[in-house]
Amino acid sequence: MPDWAAFALAAAALTLSLLFLTRRSERLLERARIADSRDEVSDAPSDVGDAGRDPRGEADGNAADTESDPDAPGVEGAADTGAGPAIRRPDDRPVLTTRLLLLNAAASQAGGLVVLAAVAWWAAVPAAAFGVGGTHPTLGVGPVASLGTPALVAVGVTAGIALTTGNEAAARLGSRVGLAPSDRLRAAMAPGTAGEWVLLLIVALPVVAVFEEALFRGALVGALAAGFAVDPWLLAVGSSVAFGLGHGAQGRLGIVVAGALGLALAGLFVATGSLLVPVVAHYVVNAVEFAVHERS
Known about the structure:
mainly alpha; 5 strands
């Protein structure tokens, strides 16, 4: 017999842990310098930086002027020390590379997926409750619930393209009213080489889509609906709020858009009873977003 109460507590703890770690990652990203594969550094807003140096750390033509100017950012002059030449303050911000961010995303999400699978096994929750490997006991609407795998993949791809269009429209509307979502995280993870594109599209994004859908839709909607006979739409709303909060790095509008996306993905899950559909749609949304905005 499944231990639904223990599973619910463990799933809630995993969700809260994920939100906590996500918030810590956001703070790190805010103060970090992002170096891509071509060693170009994108500075976070700060008065302390690499003024007077090119991305390879070589002094440019303005370096001498910067070092002799006591008012230049990142420099302490004679007025500060009382005597002596200007001294550059060290920039102790952490440096994050695109490859490191992609590997971290894949590894952390894979770790979360392993933990979730272990909890489900320990609590004896059947895979079907997640919408995996069989018919969900309570979800699925009419003939949609009996679709085969190719048809479910097609539904996921179509839904992903439609949701991407909606995301873009929301972002443009937000920009017009001064609430554009932050794209710093996406830009930081934007591949600069063919190898990084492979790492993004074949490793990082699939793992992210599988874990987030397994947790926010499979566990928090499907499993809890099966175990406690709760209205899945009520669970969908709650899980979508958590999903939106987990995207705080995208700004306030990004949280709202992510929450709406989560609700749409939950709707696909409730309608089909299959986790495959929201996983495919989630992957398509992320992949198309990178391809459209970061392909250069």
